[in-house]
Design goal:
The structure holds two protein chains of two kinds. Chain A contains 15 helices and no strands. Chain A is an all-alpha fold. The relative contact order of chain B is 0.10. Chain B has helices at residues 15-28, 44-47, 55-77, 111-138, 152-157, 175-185, 203-230, 282-288, 297-315, 324-332, 343-347, 350-359, 373-389, and strands spanning 5-12, 33-36, 162-167, 188-194. Chain B has three domains: 1-198, no CATH class; 203-233; 282-393, Orthogonal Bundle (Cytochrome Bc1 Complex, Chain D, domain 2), CATH 1.10.760.10. The chains are: A mainly alpha, B alpha+beta. The interface between A and B is large, with 84 and 77 residues.
Chain lengths: 457, 398
């Protein structure tokens, strides 16, 4: 594919009119179910069913059904929590950080990525809740007046996590909803179905596209993007504090916050890429989510992959340079100990494979993009596994050393979490506009006045 | 009944046209007009002469409020506000009392550890207030009853046309003139928008509304009853009352004696409970036992405490056999309790006293379980002090 870099590439291909944009984006919501949608939904619902069975077994028998053992108290539940929170971060990055940087190409993918953030964070929250053993007492985590006169401990990273993840979820949800208001209003005026019209009217709040409103709306969107940017960085930093504030060798390092944030963006972009490649084909929106979008995402994937690779190297260097023996032992054990298979899987998937994106043909090759996006997520899952398990399985007391093996219920819950996530994403793509109509129209050709001045940005 | 006019609207096809139209409308002197576009058109705020939005001030104020609330709340929860439970100086209701927790040796107000939550609450308050202000205050939403809804005009501006709307409330508004003006700007589909009918609320709709409220209240009540009294006591929600374990007193078929708690192996000695070697043999005890505890201020103070706790009730504070119990036994003539100021006891070795503490003597039972090893010897030192007090020698005065 040839690309002309002397002028900005069109963000929406094929010179479509504003009306066409509405038609294309609204099509999945207006047409009867297509086969691709039903197939995808039935697969994800089957996975969700496995998850439901695993949760029922877990609630009835207790966390003993998992493979967690005494030194490895944080097994898959925490690995999966960090994995899913990380996936959520790409959505905020695309919608907020790229917005602040005036990267207009983000409009095609921002809505979808934000929706993935919402579902990924909900999926992530399931794991610590279930790991508490009695999730129906989860309100103990919140500071509220109680008859025991015992309030929460604000010095604990686990409590910071409660605040960080719930704030992140709330703000992402609100940000997403604000973006959806004009699109709900467009849908309200398109639909002929009375029930749909009622629902869209309620959610559009009676938005009437007034410029007196757009003026405040645009500023609010900018402010929210400005607030989300530090928020997304803080959330994964605080997730990394769960590890870094402890004294376990391999966890107690200052590189953790930036390292976790880079890893989160890395895995999140990979997941967005995986899902978008499928969705743009199912709903035939290749000219709205273009090869250009995928190419730019591939570049970010490689950049964050390099950051993660740098962190892997730096961890080893600091362990050697610090002269702390347990620290050195942990890292040598990671690479050559009983979990070396997991470590090298991580290195190959996260550091070596993304290097293919140095070549332009690879960034425009959809099958390669798809495969690398999947290997990246495998690698990032193993990164969390390596961090969590290898540091724990060699306790300070050699008598308590153990090898962690997951049980079928660990696997069932993990598979179920994919079912939960994809069911949410698939239903979203059927009932809400997967691309922001208003934003795409704004960047379409001829959509802005040609010569009038004023507050050009 | 004729409906009142709300506004006259016109549609335009190009963003350039609508910018031009907005500029003209302003220069014509209209105030109550609006432009409706399917997306924000750049330069429109300038063309309409709009003031910059004041929304950021809301964000700033609520962000700062969230920050200070987080500092105050964490300080208050962590106990620095009120360092002892139940302190009445703040006049708190019982449900606002809290234990001060000292964790990891950190001060009650440990600011660095509070920073993450301070940040999160700042962002949370700022973001939610911005959105709430945007929707409710700055845009006046929700407003599904607005006259512009369900018109051809709204269907167009929500998709791909640009609309100009001049409202009847404007001072310069005259229906014919406005229509001509819009025509002259190049607008098409010019239409008059009427105010919607206002239906007075009927008695029945109020009744239905009250019925729905009552139904919701009933539903919530039943739900709360079922959850709190039924579901929360079904397994697995049993508050850990049922656990797969054996209690010490349960019968157990695994062992021959059907008991869960097994006897210790013969000859087992519990920590700190060495058996007493001279049981029933006071002579050997006196001959072989030597007091290992040094005499100093500390051991004597300890011995005095032990004596007042365990001995003085019978033997008396001054070891004269005139304790409270002794007075009662003498009164009723049951038995007499000896003091320690006799020649026999002055000459008896420390091992003698030790043996009596361990083994008892006459009516006195063993105190081995009440008094620890070192305390017994300290106690004996104190008995010596009491004996000496009533048997002082000339040399003691020097």
């Amino acid at each position: 594919m040839s690309v002309d870099f002397t002028k900005p590439a069109p963000l929406v291909e094929g010179g479509v009119s504003l009306k066409d944009i509405d038609d294309v984006i609204a099509a999945p919501m207006e047409k009867p179910n297509n086969k691709g949608f039903l197939l995808a939904l039935s697969i994800s619902l089957s996975l969700l069913g496995i998850g439901v069975i695993s949760v029922a077994k877990l609630l009835y028998d207790g966390v003993g059904v998992w493979g967690n053992n005494n030194p490895v108290n944080w097994g898959w539940p925490i690995v999966n929590f960090v994995f899913w929170v990380g996936i959520g971060h790409a959505g905020t990055l695309i919608s907020a950080i790229l917005f602040l940087m005036r990267q207009t190409w983000r409009t095609g993918i921002a809505r979808f990525a934000e929706a993935m953030t919402i579902f990924a964070v909900i999926t992530a929250l399931l794991f610590p809740l279930l790991h508490t053993g009695r999730p129906w007492l989860a309100h103990y985590l919140l500071p509220y007046p109680n008859e025991r006169a015992m309030w929460v401990n604000f010095r604990s990273p686990l409590l910071w996590d409660v605040f960080a993840v719930s704030t992140y979820f709330t703000v992402s949800l609100v940000f997403w909803y604000v973006g959806l208001i004009p699109d709900f209003a467009s849908m309200r005026d398109r639909t002929t179905n009375k029930i749909k019209k009622f629902i869209y009217s309620v959610f559009s709040l009676g938005w009437r596209f007034s410029n007196r409103h757009w003026q405040h709306y645009e500023r609010a969107y900018l402010i929210l993007a400005g607030l989300c940017t530090p928020l997304v960085l803080s959330v994964h930093s605080i997730v990394s504090f769960d590890f870094a504030v402890s004294l376990i060798p391999g966890w107690h390092t200052t590189i953790f916050p930036p390292y976790f944030v880079a890893g989160a963006i890395f895995s999140g972009f990979a997941m967005v890429l995986t899902v978008l490649i499928v969705v743009r084909v199912i709903y035939k929106i290749e000219h709205i989510i273009t090869a250009l979008h995928l190419e730019r995402m591939a570049k970010i994937l490689m950049a964050t992959g390099l950051m993660v690779g740098y962190a892997y190297g730096m961890e080893f260097f600091i362990a050697a340079y610090s002269g702390v023996e347990p620290e050195q032992y942990v890292f040598i054990n990671r690479a050559f100990g009983p979990y070396s298979w997991a470590y090298w899987t991580m290195i190959i998937c996260n550091v070596i494979i993304p290097q293919i994106f140095w070549f332009k043909w690879a960034r425009y090759n959809i099958p390669i993009l798809f495969i690398v996006s999947i290997t990246t997520n495998i690698g990032m899952w193993f990164e969390r596994f390596v961090i969590t398990v290898t540091s724990l399985h060699r306790d300070f007391l050699p008598s308590s050393w153990a090898y962690f093996t997951p049980t079928i219920w660990d696997v069932g819950l993990y598979v179920g979490s994919f079912g939960f996530f994809f069911t949410g994403v698939i239903l979203f793509s059927r009932f809400m506009p997967v691309v922001s109509m208003a934003e795409v129209k704004m960047v379409a050709e001829g959509a802005q006045p040609s010569h009038h001045g004023g507050d050009h940005e | 009944m004729s409906r009142k006019l709300h506004s006259i609207v016109a549609l335009f096809d190009k963003p350039d046209d609508i910018i031009h139209a907005a500029e003209k409308t302003v220069s014509e002197g209209y105030k109550d007009f609006d432009v409706h576009t399917p997306y924000p058109v750049h330069g429109m705020d300038h063309a309409m002469h709009l003031e910059p939005t004041k929304l950021p001030y809301v964000t700033l104020c609520f962000g700062l409020f969230g920050l200070s609330f987080a500092v105050f709340f964490q300080w208050w929860v962590s106990g620095d506000a009120n360092t002892s439970i139940g302190a009445k100086n703040l006049f708190l209701p019982y449900w606002l009392e809290r234990y001060p927790f000292v964790i990891g040796g950190k001060p009650l107000f440990s600011l660095p550890a509070f920073v993450p939550v301070m940040f999160e609450l700042t962002v949370l308050f700022a973001a939610l207030s911005t959105v709430a202000a945007l929707i409710a205050v700055f845009c006046g939403l929700p407003a599904n009853a607005h006259p512009l809804h369900d018109t051809e005009y709204m269907k167009n501006v929500s998709s791909d046309r640009y609309g100009l709307c001049i409202e009847a409330s404007d001072d310069l508004f005259e229906e014919g003139k406005v229509k001509d003006f819009l025509q002259s700007l190049g607008g098409h589909s010019i239409a008059a928008i009427k105010q919607p009918y206002k239906r007075p609320p009927s008695f029945f709709s109020t009744l239905i509304f009250m019925g729905v409220l009552g139904g919701v209240a009933m539903g919530v009540g039943v739900k709360a009853y079922v959850i709190y009294n039924k579901i929360l006591y079904l397994p697995p929600f049993t508050w850990m009352e049922t656990q797969p374990k054996l209690n010490a007193q349960d019968t157990n078929d695994f062992f021959e004696n059907k008991s869960t708690m097994q006897d210790p192996v013969a000859g087992t000695v519990a920590r700190g409970f060495m058996p007493y070697e001279y049981q029933g043999d006071i002579a050997s005890a006196e001959a072989s036992l030597v007091n290992p505890v040094p005499v100093n201020q500390e051991t004597l103070t300890r011995g005095k405490l032990m004596y007042s706790v365990h001995c003085s009730a019978c033997h008396g504070d001054l070891a004269d056999g005139q304790g409270k119990v002794a007075l009662r036994t003498q009164e009723s003539g049951v038995w007499a309790i000896p003091g320690f100021h006799t020649d026999v006891l002055r000459k008896a070795g420390d091992g003698y006293f030790y043996h009596v503490i361990m083994d008892g003597k006459g009516k006195m039972s063993s105190y081995a379980k009440q008094i620890d090893e070192d305390d017994r010897w300290a106690l004996i030192h104190y008995i010596r002090v009491l004996q000496r007090a009533k048997d002082a020698k000339e040399t003691d005065l020097k």
